[in-house]
TrEMBL record:
It comes from Chromobacterium amazonense. Pfam families: Peptidase_S24 (PF00717). One of its GO terms (molecular function) is DNA binding. SUPFAM superfamilies: lambda repressor-like DNA-binding domains, LexA/Signal peptidase. Coiled coil: none annotated. The keyword Methyltransferase does not apply. This is HTH cro/C1-type domain-containing protein. Residues 18-64 form the HTH cro/C1-type domain. InterPro entries: Cro/C1-type_HTH (IPR001387), Lambda_DNA-bd_dom_sf (IPR010982), LexA-like (IPR039418), LexA/Signal_pep-like_sf (IPR036286), Peptidase_S24_S26A/B/C (IPR015927). It comes from the Bacteria. Keywords: DNA-binding, Transcription, Transcription regulation. The keyword Transcription applies.
Length: 234
């Protein structure tokens, strides 16, 4: 059975509803051009906007974004915990503090280097949340997603938690932060004949085609760590 892309599903639901693109644009509080883009490969960003569009079309947000079955891996949202200006204001026995993961292009050879910024601002999460998601504070850091290649699962600007201790044994079908050809990506990895296949969640394969790294080229692929949670805006 052919997989229905978001663009196909949105177009089908829009036609069935009898609504116009202009009406949906008003409901979602976006431009007419943005809604046109939903028919060709982009997706509405933010849970609140997705819910508004879905309600206008007479379906649930899960049906709109993923079809009737919904996503195989629901987004693990990081809940806001408290307003604080420094770590001393929070109880150390209740919270963990995750630093930012800094990834930069190295000078000269064009490779990629990364380090954990222990001196910068850290994000706080409850220890219960970390235990529930099996996150070791000694191995985790945050990154910000850039681009739309992993939509609808990961949106541009989402903050993700990367477990950089999980960077040797690839788990088939999981999402990883990787470096390849002097660039940093967040992609889904699949094992393939001793190498890996790099896959974007965005269904627009014309813009985001799969890419294979054969076994004899694996030395050029650097796995930074596995993405274990994501926090997005609305």
């Amino acid at each position: 059975m052919k997989h229905e892309t978001f663009a196909e599903r949105f177009t089908r639901l829009l036609d069935a509803s009898g609504l116009t693109l202009g009406h949906i644009a008003d409901v979602a509080d976006v431009s007419y051009q943005a809604v046109q883009g939903w028919k060709t490969g982009s997706v509405p960003r933010g849970a609140a906007r997705q819910a508004k569009v879905a309600a206008a079309l007479g379906v649930t947000a899960a049906e709109l974004m993923y079809g009737e079955k919904g996503p195989e891996e629901p987004r693990q949202l990081l809940r806001p915990i408290a307003v604080w200006s420094n770590e001393e204001e929070l109880e150390a026995d209740r919270y963990i503090f995750l630093p930012a993961l800094e990834v930069k292009l190295s000078a000269g050879e064009g490779g990629v280097v990364w380090h954990v910024d222990e001196k910068g601002q850290r994000q706080a999460f409850t220890r219960k949340w970390a235990q529930r998601h099996c996150i070791d504070p000694e191995c985790a850091a945050t990154m910000v997603v850039q681009g739309s290649s992993m939509e609808p699962r990961l949106q541009d600007g989402d903050s993700i938690v990367v477990d950089y201790c999980q960077n040797t044994n690839i788990i088939d079908g999981k999402v990883y932060a990787i470096a390849l050809d002097g660039e940093v990506f967040v992609k889904r990895l699949f094992k393939e004949f001793g190498g890996v296949r790099i896959v974007s969640d965005n269904p627009d394969k014309a813009r985001y085609p799969d890419r294979s790294v054969p076994a004899d080229k694996m030395a050029y692929l650097k796995v930074i760590g596995r993405v274990v949670a994501v926090s997005g805006g609305v």
